[in-house]
Amino acid sequence: MAIKTILVSQPKPEGEKSPYYDLAEKHNLKIDFRPFIHVEGIGAQEFRQQKVNLADASALILTSKIAIDHFFRIAEELRFEVPEGMKYFCISEAVALYLQKYVTYRKRKIFFGKQTINDLMEVMKKHKDEKFLLPCTDILRDSIPTTLEENGYDFKKAVLYRTVASDLSDLENVYYDMLVFFSPGGIESLLKNFPDFKQNNTLIAAFGPTTANAVVKNNLRLDVHAPMPNAPSMTGAIELFIKESKKKK
After folding, report:
1. Phi/psi of residue 56, each to 5°?
2. Of 37, 39, 166, 191, which is most buried by a Cβ count within 10 Å?
3. pLDDT for 229-241, tens place per residue?
4. For residue 138, what are the CA distances in angstroms to 127, 135, 185?
């Protein structure tokens, strides 16, 4: 079948440049964007039930900009003044720079890795005596706390936000040739919003192994998978699929 319409389960890219716009123009596609999941902050009352004391921490492990936003939000709700001596260990430089929204960057002890928790371990090993706090989501990947435990760090998790399904009821009678997913939560949202969803001729694209597994586990057909050696990006995988489909005609 010829692909004409694609729904990407993420927010619309900011700015005028995006590989999706290039893909749409090159292959005469209509590509829409709609987040299937969103983040909701956990309130102070629910946070207290975790019995985590922010004052016990001498250092934070920050894995995303969202984690930063929700740490400072909950600190404000609890009227906790973040000490000037707090150390910040960020998963990447981009996350570290985002701290400027809340603290005077040059006056703080801020460290960052390249992109993964293993990179960050290299930076953290000189700070083994700190008491770390890991602000996170309710669906945090096991690899992060497991790596911290294996390396003997004293840390506590603080669940500050959760990922929930967005309301997609306005899409009930809207059909796309392809749906593109980036997390298991996106698949869960699809099936929560449309319990009677039948895939039929709708193509499903998934980025990453956990997303691909979620597609298969829910008895859906996985048509496009990225990253692959010949298509490291989602747009590259879609383009490859379109080209292969045209060859079969």
Report:
1. -75, -20
2. 37
3. 888 999 999 999 9
4. 27, 10, 12
Burial bucket for residue 174 (CB in 10 Å: 0-12, 13-18, 19+) = exposed
Q: Report the alpha-carbon distance of residue 33 to residue 15 in Å, rounded.
A: 14
Q: Would you state the pLDDT for residue 118?
A: 87
Which tokens hold the place of 245? 């489909």
Is 60 in a helix, a strand, or coil? strand
Token pair listed for 28: 């005469």
> What is the reported pTM?
0.75
In 3D space, the residue among 14, 69, 82 whose CA is nearest the CA of residue 39 turns out to be 69
Task: Please determine, for residue 140, whether its predicted confidence score (pLDDT) is greater than 80.
Answer: no
DSSP state letters, 119-149: HHHHHHGGGTTSEEEEEEETT--THHHHHHH
Number of Cβ atoms within 10 Å of the Cβ of 177: 16
Which of 128, 129, 123, 119 shows the shortest CA–CA distance to 110?
Answer: 123
Burial class (CB in 10 A: 0-12, 13-18, 19+), 218: middle
Is residue 96 helix, strand or coil? helix
